């Protein structure tokens, strides 16, 4: 029973590590990490009472928000009475009126003041400037987190201008942290806004193959000085090291990183592999990672194509041919004409009656491999309503290749169109 307990405990430990941003991103020992750089920039603003503006740039899932939240948590512990955080999102507050109202609401909540919903744009703008001055006099830094920063750079940019202009005052004390997946976000700023911006940027790059291997090794290695049996830890860590250095594993990992190399996606892959660990042996295996890869890479559309009938495959190929011919709008009748032309050209043996084809067509609609182009025309019968494909040419080609009984003519047609 005790042996089973430490195996289960090992799985739980690995899962908790994968789900803990502090374990993944908090590397305070190295000054070159984005965590260390960002913490230094913001903490300097707090301790030296200076204003600052920073952009966190990188693809979605690269850890921008996670690192910022870790830094804010650490600063709250160090300076509990010297920090106030205002959060805005460009998807919700890109309108200047809504943004100033939200800033006023959060400032009122933070300082236990009465918030007025009826306050005008100018009232909220003046209130923000006055509060920044008051916070500066009280040696309290206001951190403005602007998620989806590029959306705030649309239109007249009154929010950004007012915010950065207020920070020019020696009495204010604030930090603006913009987060965006657009690397050219600072180029979107107007001249008057850009001149007030600090132009400090941190780039969050997807990890390289070597970085990914180091991350996997760090997450999957069990601590030696722990409650786990010493022999089990040595054996477990040895197996993990052998897996990561194995050529077959590197090939699997490389395929996965080619799809999406962000930290978020990599952790999802890792969590799936750990969840498939055999609790009887208590060790990770190469198969766990291959199962994780195949399960995450599941493509429902491809699986649907594999289960199609030959007639349904003909209909899909006919629709693809119509799209290649740039026929902007087509329906079941158009598909039937294309189907007949293929039969006449190649004298295929797979030719079905119109009513059979219509049932196959309706089945494709039900399985959502095709759909109607709009919701209009409900009064029309199915064969007259315009339709479109919901699968790409590559998916159809791949699906035909995985279909064991696929007629050779369909492969030739797709190769010709591809």
From TrEMBL:
Gene Ontology MF, one: ATP hydrolysis activity
Location of the Origin recognition complex subunit 4 C-terminal domain: 215-399
Record domain ATPase AAA-type core: where: 54-200
Cited InterPro entries: ATPase_AAA_core, ORC4, ORC4_C, P-loop_NTPase
GO biological process: DNA replication initiation
SUPFAM superfamilies: P-loop containing nucleoside triphosphate hydrolases
Cellular location(s): Nucleus
Major subcellular location class: nucleus
Record's keyword annotation contains Lyase: no
Pfam families, per the entry: AAA, ORC4_C
Keywords: ATP-binding, DNA replication, DNA-binding, Nucleotide-binding, Nucleus
CC annotations in GO: nuclear origin of replication recognition complex
Function, in words: Component of the origin recognition complex (ORC) that binds origins of replication. DNA-binding is ATP-dependent. The specific DNA sequences that define origins of replication have not been identified yet. ORC is required to assemble the pre-replication complex necessary to initiate DNA replication.
Family recorded in the similarity comment: Belongs to the ORC4 family.
Protein name as catalogued: Origin of replication complex subunit 4
Annotated source species: Clitoria ternatea
């Amino acid at each position: 029973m005790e042996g089973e307990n430490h195996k289960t405990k090992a799985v739980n430990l690995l899962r908790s590590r994968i789900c803990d941003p502090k374990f993944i991103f908090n590397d305070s020992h190295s000054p070159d990490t984005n965590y260390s750089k960002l913490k230094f920039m913001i903490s300097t603003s707090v301790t030296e009472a200076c204003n600052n503006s920073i952009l966190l740039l990188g693809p979605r899932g690269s850890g921008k928000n996670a690192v910022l939240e870790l830094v804010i948590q650490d600063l709250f512990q160090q300076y509990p009475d010297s920090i106030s955080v205002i959060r805005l999102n460009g998807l919700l507050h890109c309108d200047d009126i809504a943004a100033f109202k939200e800033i006023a609401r959060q400032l009122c909540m933070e300082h236990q003041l009465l918030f007025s919903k009826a306050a005008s744009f100018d009232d909220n703008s003046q209130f923000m400037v006055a509060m920044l001055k008051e916070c500066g006099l009280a040696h309290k830094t206001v951190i403005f987190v602007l998620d989806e920063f590029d959306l705030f750079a649309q239109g007249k940019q009154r929010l950004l201008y007012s915010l950065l202009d207020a920070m020019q005052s020696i009495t204010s004390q604030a930090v603006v942290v913009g987060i965006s997946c657009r690397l050219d976000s600072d180029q979107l700023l107007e001249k008057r806004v850009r001149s007030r911006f600090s132009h400090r940027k941190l780039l969050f790059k997807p990890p390289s193959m070597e970085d990914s291997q180091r991350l996997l090794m760090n997450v999957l290695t069990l601590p030696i000085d722990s409650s786990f049996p010493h022999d089990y830890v040595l054996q477990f860590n040895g197996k993990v090291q052998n897996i990561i250095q194995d050529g077959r594993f590197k090939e699997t990992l490389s395929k996965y990183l080619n799809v999406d190399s962000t930290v978020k996606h990599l952790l999802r892959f890792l969590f799936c592999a750990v969840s498939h660990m055999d609790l009887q042996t208590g060790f990770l295996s190469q198969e766990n990672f291959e199962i994780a890869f195949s399960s995450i890479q599941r493509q429902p559309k491809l699986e649907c194509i594999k289960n199609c009938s030959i007639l349904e495959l003909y209909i899909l190929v006919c629709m693809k041919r119509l799209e290649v011919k740039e026929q902007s709008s087509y329906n079941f009748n158009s598909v039937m004409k294309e189907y007949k032309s293929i039969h006449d050209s190649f004298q295929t043996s797979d030719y079905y009656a119109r009513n059979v084809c219509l049932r196959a067509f309706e089945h494709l609609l039900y399985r959502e491999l095709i759909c109607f182009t709009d919701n209009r025309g409900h009064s029309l019968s199915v064969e007259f309503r315009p339709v479109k494909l919901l699968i790409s040419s590559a998916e159809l080609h791949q699906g035909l290749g995985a279909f064991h009984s696929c007629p050779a003519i369909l492969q030739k047609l797709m190769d010709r169109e591809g």
